[in-house]
Structure formats: C-alpha cells, structure tokens
Design brief:
By secondary structure, this protein is an alpha+beta fold. The chain has 2 domains: 4-86; 97-201, no CATH class. The chain is built from 8 helices and 8 strands, in the order ααββαββαβααβαββα. The strands form 2 sheets. A 4-stranded antiparallel beta sheet has the order 1-2-3-4. Strands 7-5-6-8 form a 4-stranded mixed beta sheet, covered by helices on one side. A hairpin with a 5-residue loop joins strand 3 (63-69) and strand 4. The longest helix is centred in the C-terminal third of the chain and has 18 residues, at 184-201. It is elongated and about 65 Å long.
Length: 202
C-alpha cells in the first residue's frame, strides 16, 4: 500500500507538470486523507499562494480532489461538479452492477386501481398512459447510477408512488436520470418523457 507521502508526490508531479518553466504558481498539498474503504488517498491541492499565503484570488478551481489508488498509484481526478464521496459511491455501485443496469420501476401493476389513480393524478396524464407504464413490457421507467435513482425513489415515494430499484441486463428504453434531478417536478418531467417515448412506439 502506498504511503501518504508517496501519493502526495504522485499528485504534485501531475499537477505541476510544466509549471517550473512557465512561471505559474506551483501546486502544494492542501489535505490528504484515506478513503473510508482505505482504497484511495483523497488529495486536495491548490496554489501555494492560496494554501500557504491565503490569497483567495490565486485559488485554482475546477478540481474537487485527486484520488490515488492506494495499491497501484493510478490517479483519478474528480471535478468540482461532483464531490469525491459521490464519485466513489458511483464507482462502487458500477462495479457491483457487473455490467447490468440499475432500473427504477413501479412496485405495483395495472391491477392496483388506487395506485393507478394516484399515478395519473401526480403525473397529470391519461388513464391509458399509466396502464401502459405499469404493463410488464413497458414498466422500466428510469435508469442511471444507483445514487440518483435512490434520490428519485425518495421523491416518488413522498408522492405515494411506490417503486423498486433492480438490476437488469437490459434498460429497455428507460429514461436516463442525471445530476439535475433534485425535486419531484424534475422526476415527473422524466416520467412524462417516458410516456411520450411509449406513445411513439404504440
């Protein structure tokens, strides 16, 4: 296993390539911690002016952290758009999926009349749409990483729409969920898009 000092030197060599010759402010280590599973060194770095001298205007932006594999020394760079914890969570979930797709689908079928009525009201769509959405050949609603599907599941269940997340070998035209989903209306828009896609097939 790499020591912290070895991991830090790997990151500094990567970040400071060329800076010695072009006069740019060199990177220094801001923090270095081991991930909870002890498989990555999580290293934050920034300009010496920012880290040592506190000059806010010299702060480099764009990178959340560099992750150094504690065994191989391989480096993965995480952007500011995503925290390193979420990045690793997605990475682990992808490995666990073993090439399969995470699918969010209803936990009820078209025989559950009260669930269908609630779904139609919440999605503001036609009765035939929700019947189609809960039929065996078209009840794969959303796909994507497990973390965001779990967020969507929470939002749907708050609206009393019961769903499951399962692994399947095929996504069957399920709609991709991304980082932009934070509220029910955004999940609703994705499900209405799924309805539109089904209507094209029918």
């Amino acid at each position: 296993m790499l020591k912290a000092e070895e991991a830090q030197q790997i990151v500094l060599r990567l970040c400071n390539q060329g800076k010695e010759t072009n006069g740019e402010n060199e990177f220094v280590i801001q923090s270095c911690t081991l991930s909870p599973r002890r498989d990555y060194w999580v290293i934050r770095s920034n300009s010496a002016d920012y880290v040592i001298r506190g000059m806010e205007e010299r702060c480099y932006v764009g990178v959340s952290a560099n992750l150094v594999n504690a065994l191989t020394g391989e480096v993965e760079t995480v952007s500011n758009a995503q925290g390193w914890q979420s990045y690793l969570e997605d990475k682990y979930d992808l490995i666990n999926a073993q090439g399969n797709f995470y699918i969010l689908r209803p936990a009820f079928d078209k025989s559950d009349k009260s669930a269908l009525i609630n779904l139609r009201q919440k999605l503001e769509c036609r009765a035939q749409d929700v019947i189609c959405m809960t039929s065996p050949n078209s009840n794969f609603w959303l796909t994507g990483n497990l973390r965001k599907l779990n967020d969507a599941k929470i939002l749907l269940e708050k609206a009393n729409i019961q769903v499951n997340i399962e692994l399947h070998t095929d996504s069957q035209d399920a709609i991709e969920v991304d980082e932009s989903v934070w509220f029910f209306d955004e999940v609703k828009a994705l499900l209405r898009r799924r309805i539109s896609e089904m209507q094209k097939i029918i």
